[in-house]
UniProtKB/TrEMBL annotation, chain A:
Recorded coiled-coil stretches: none
Organism lineage: Bacteria, Pseudomonadati, Pseudomonadota, Alphaproteobacteria, Rhodobacterales
Example GO molecular function: oxidoreductase activity
Protein name per its UniProtKB record: Dihydropyrimidine dehydrogenase
Residue intervals of the Dihydroprymidine dehydrogenase domain: 22-130
Alphabetical list of InterPro entries matching this protein: DPD_II, FAD/NAD-bd_sf, FAD/NAD-binding_dom, Helical_ferredxn
Automatic annotation (TrEMBL), chain B:
Family according to the record: Belongs to the dihydropyrimidine dehydrogenase family.
Function: Involved in pyrimidine base degradation. Catalyzes physiologically the reduction of uracil to 5,6-dihydrouracil (DHU) by using NADH as a specific cosubstrate. It also catalyzes the reverse reaction and the reduction of thymine to 5,6-dihydrothymine (DHT).
UniProt cross-references to SUPFAM superfamilies, sorted A to Z: 4Fe-4S ferredoxins (SSF54862), FMN-linked oxidoreductases (SSF51395)
Name of the featured protein: dihydrouracil dehydrogenase (NAD(+))
Recorded superkingdom: Bacteria
Location of the 4Fe-4S ferredoxin-type domain: 338-370, 371-401
Catalytic reactions of this protein: 5,6-dihydrouracil + NAD(+) = uracil + NADH + H(+); 5,6-dihydrothymine + NAD(+) = thymine + NADH + H(+)
Subunit relationships: Heterotetramer of 2 PreA and 2 PreT subunits.
A cellular component term, taken from the record's GO annotations: cytoplasm
Keyword field: Iron, Iron-sulfur, Metal-binding, Oxidoreductase
PANTHER family the record matches: DIHYDROPYRIMIDINE DEHYDROGENASE [NADP(+)] (PTHR43073:SF2)
Length: 439, 434
């Protein structure tokens, strides 16, 4: 008898075979040319536009939207990529509702911002379809740079360095480049293998060698890189996962949300990917939402996100929370797990209600129990694998030795967003270039 | 509900909305549909002389200018007069008029510029029982190359001559349709009046190329790699038409000559504006070609509601009401001072007013670091550009300064009415203003 949504335990194939493609397809379909032109016409071409100020990569949004409106989406894409070489992925994963679109004057005027994210995606999709890379390398400088981590920060850094004529080698510990774009984002946000396509397209500039399966600290040291290269960029991300600090969290069935998301992204047949009947996700960020929604899409009967504070404190935006609710996920606020129970594997989680006061979070005596055969921890990632000589403060890289730069989630400054990582990688490349050329 | 019945040069119709002579009025089938939808009258698509009908192109005959959502803003055409046999048109006109006695039915005519041709066509249409004729001196394409249409309308002497022939050989009311492709619209209107016209109608279409195909390097619409100028119409031409109607309405020589207003009438409001500037009724084409005949229902309800709000009991109360307020620049009050005022409650902080004023005007808007935009009264010349570019209706308004208050820009008190004719800077200034 085939599995269904009601089959107990963590099992694959809860849904009819045809359901998976549909569930994990693009959740926001692309605008066609006419829709894009109509959407672009809503832009007021603001003076010193607030949306640009709100964009961590400072994309000239009014200009690229005007270029779409006048029928030149490829010029629009160049405007985007000049500031943000991963503009295609950012168009898909940026929390635009808390960045450019929140700042849009039409949000102020009528609660309906210009659809900047969708327009950015339109422009970059159209331009990428032509498969012509719009940038070329500058004259060779003879300088070489090592980039550690092929995530958004590393790739943005590598591309900008290649544009400047430097020779770049990217070291990536995982089998594929892309970082969180490839391993850490819900499938329906980057459908059709987009992350890999974008990396291939980015590398067309030339001058970048990507070496996968090479891990800093295991296969090479920072000293090796400092010896062999003129400069080093660290974009190593946050590889550790915070523990629940709840009794029983080592029981089988308790897993890291980031690992679940990565497995899901790398799965070639989602009907073979097991998921629980009753799934509980602990946390309040995008990772929690991505894990919860995808559990539901894989056929879990009930999925509950439990977050220890109120909705306004959740790192996942209101838009993301709505998305989860619409997918059928239940969100419980102001509750924290204190015990995971089960006979040989997880069967339930005990929660205490919390009170968020001036003295911090307090667990109350009252609580509840949720039935669970799968529990995902999504309470934040931590910095690990920091090489010797690199100074860490507040859980982030705060200072680096000479000829070493850092950016992205591993480094201090800015939110842990793809778009912020791109900005930091790009800016580090500019700083490295200035250093190498004595500018 | 206000009474919309209209009597234009004695031609009665249940409302002042007529369809202009154009493709929508080429056949009985279309005209019957128009009357069923509620149109007050039609001017039948232009008839030519007896004989082999004209031939139209078989490639595209319309070109367009669109807004972002393909809203049709302007249309041009290279279609000629009716290409159906004269006899068929005459039979259909007669049949329609019999069935729809309460509606206006006027026949548009265009024949070669000799008296016999006009005498002949007038005789042919005599027993259709149509209400009147409209002389097509307007079409700027195709027929103009053959000495008809705007080729006549551009020569006031020809207009007068042909109008005289028509009045001599027919007792029907005669409307002369004018071309805007002329430097001073008053001259052809005066000529029509001298020739005995009962009314003028305007504007016909404007010489135009709507766009150029940047791959084939041909004007659009393209016929086998070539294009020609067509007649432009639709919402885009309305301001040009309004001015020409007003010029005729306020010209001493033509004041009082009935006008049928044409040119981009799309809504009841457009119609009301034409009528306020002196048009006794309006003729519509592009709006019907864009949306179908049903739009007349909005025009009827809209004009009626407006008239009710204003307490107008007949369209005559509206016609010409704005004409006395159309004047020459030299008579404008130079002591009327206004200042832009930005409502901070309505401002969405887009900064368009700032960019417009700072880059292209008088540097009279200040922008604070937190995007608050305020007007500098000492710099503001009241040009109105900020109002025009602001995306929020009524966010920026022009507030008149009271008499006696000092204008911080000029340091002078706001005074009584005074215009250029008496201004000290005017070398031609006269002692007593008009």
């Amino acid at each position: 008898m085939p599995n269904s949504q009601l089959t107990p335990g963590i099992v694959p194939g809860r849904l009819p075979a045809t359901a998976y493609d549909r569930n994990f397809d693009d959740h926001l379909p692309a605008l066609d040319a006419h829709e894009a032109r109509v959407a672009a016409d809503r832009c007021y071409f603001c003076h010193d536009a607030p949306c640009v100020t709100a964009c961590p990569t400072d994309i000239d949004i009014p200009l690229f939207i005007r270029q779409i409106a006048t029928g030149t989406p490829e010029a629009a894409a160049r405007t985007i990529w000049t500031q943000n070489i991963l503009g295609g992925m950012c168009a898909r994963v940026c929390p635009t509702e808390t960045l450019c679109e929140e700042a849009c004057v039409r949000q102020t005027a009528e609660g309906k911002p210009v659809e900047i994210g969708l327009l950015q995606r339109h422009a970059t999709d159209v331009a990428m379809a032509s498969n012509r890379h719009p940038f070329s390398r500058g004259p060779a400088t003879g300088k070489s740079v090592a980039v550690v981590g092929a995530g958004p920060a590393g790739l943005a850094c590598a591309h900008r360095l290649a544009m400047k004529g430097h020779e770049v080698t990217v070291f990536e510990r995982r089998p594929k480049p892309g970082g969180l774009n490839e391993y850490g984002i819900a499938s329906y946000k980057a459908a059709g293998g987009f992350a890999a396509r974008e990396v291939d397209w980015l590398l067309q500039i030339g001058g970048i060698t990507v070496k996968c399966g090479v891990e800093l600290g295991r296969d090479l040291t920072l000293a090796d890189l400092q010896r062999d290269f003129d400069a080093v960029f660290l974009g190593i991300g946050l590889q550790g996962v915070n523990a629940l600090r709840a009794e029983g969290e080592d029981l089988p069935g308790v897993a890291n949300a980031v690992d679940f998301i990565a497995d899901l992204r790398q799965s070639s047949d989602l009907s073979k990917l097991p998921v629980g009947r009753d799934v509980v996700v602990i946390g309040g960020g995008m990772t929690a939402v991505d894990a919860a929604v995808q559990s539901k899409l894989l056929g879990a009967e009930t999925v509950t996100i439990v977050y220890r504070r109120g909705p306004e404190k959740m790192a996942a935006s209101g838009y993301e929370q709505d998305h989860a609710l619409q997918a059928g996920v239940r969100i419980i606020h102001n509750a924290a797990p204190f015990r995971v129970t089960g006979n040989g594997r997880v069967e339930a989680v005990d929660f205490a209600y919390t009170e968020d006061g001036p003295d911090g979070l307090k667990l109350l005596d009252e609580g509840f129990t949720l039935k669970a055969d799968q529990v995902f921890k999504a309470i934040g990632q931590t910095l690990t694998g920091v090489p010797e000589g690199v100074m860490v403060a507040g859980g982030k890289i705060a200072a680096t030795p000479a000829r070493v730069w850092a950016g992205g989630d591993c480094a201090a400054g800015g939110e842990d967003l793809t778009v912020t990582a791109v900005a930091e990688g790009r800016d580090a490349a500019e700083a490295i270039h200035a250093f190498l050329t004595g500018a | 509900m206000a009474d919309l019945t209209s009597s234009f040069i004695g031609i009665k119709s249940p409302n002042p909305f007529w369809l202009a002579s154009a493709p929508p009025t080429d056949k009985e089938y279309n005209v019957v549909r128009a009357f069923q939808a509620g149109w007050g009258g039609v001017v039948w698509k232009t008839l030519g002389s007896e004989g082999p009908p004209v031939v139209n192109v078989s490639g595209p005959r319309y070109g367009a200018v669109w807004g972002a959502d393909r809203r049709l803003l302007g249309l041009n055409n290279i279609e000629l007069i009716t290409d159906r046999p004269l006899e068929v048109n005459l039979q259909e006109i007669k049949s329609v008029k019999r069935a729809w006695k309460d509606r206006a039915l006027v026949i548009s005519l265009m024949v070669p510029c000799d008296e016999d041709s006009w005498k002949d066509i007038l005789k042919r249409i005599e027993d259709t029982e149509a209400d009147g004729v409209e002389l097509n001196f307007g079409c700027p394409h195709g027929m103009a190359e053959r000495g008809m249409g705007s080729a006549v309308g551009q020569v006031p002497e020809y207009i007068e001559m042909v109008t005289r022939w028509v009045k001599k050989h027919s007792r029907m009311p005669c409307i002369v349709k004018l071309t805007p492709n002329i430097s001073d619209i008053r001259r052809p209107a005066e000529a029509a009046k001298r020739g005995g016209a009962d009314a003028v109608s305007l504007i016909n279409t404007i010489n135009s190329i709507t766009s150029v195909n940047l791959d084939d390097f041909s004007p659009e619409p393209m016929i086998d790699g070539k294009g020609t100028h067509g007649g432009y119409c639709g919402p885009a031409v309305k301001p040009i038409a309004l001015n020409m109607v007003a010029e005729i309405a306020r010209n001493a020589e033509t004041h009082g000559l009935p006008i049928s207003g044409i040119g981009g009438v799309t809504t009841w409001r457009d119609a009301a504006e034409f009528m306020a500037l002196g048009a006794g009724n309006v003729q519509v084409c592009t709006a019907a070609m864009t949306y179908g005949f049903k739009i007349v229902q909005e025009m009827i309800s809209g004009l009626s509601d407006y008239m009710d709000r204003k307490g107008f009991t007949s369209t005559a109360d509206l016609v010409g009401r704005a004409v006395p307020n159309v004047t020459d620049w030299q008579y404008l009050n130079l002591n009327y001072v206004t200042k832009a005022q930005i409502s901070q409650a309505d401002c969405i902080q887009c900064g368009r007013c700032y960019a417009a004023c700072e880059d292209t005007s008088h540097q009279a808007i200040a922008m604070s670091p937190d995007r608050v935009f305020t007007v500098k009264d000492e710099e503001c010349v009241a040009c109105n550009l900020c109002v025009n570019v602001c995306p929020v209706e009524n966010c920026i308004t022009m507030v008149p300064m009271q008499k006696g208050v000092v204008d911080p820009r000029t340091g002078r008190k706001v005074g009584d009415y005074a215009n250029w004719t008496t201004h000290p800077n005017n070398p031609m200034s006269v002692k007593a203003a008009e």
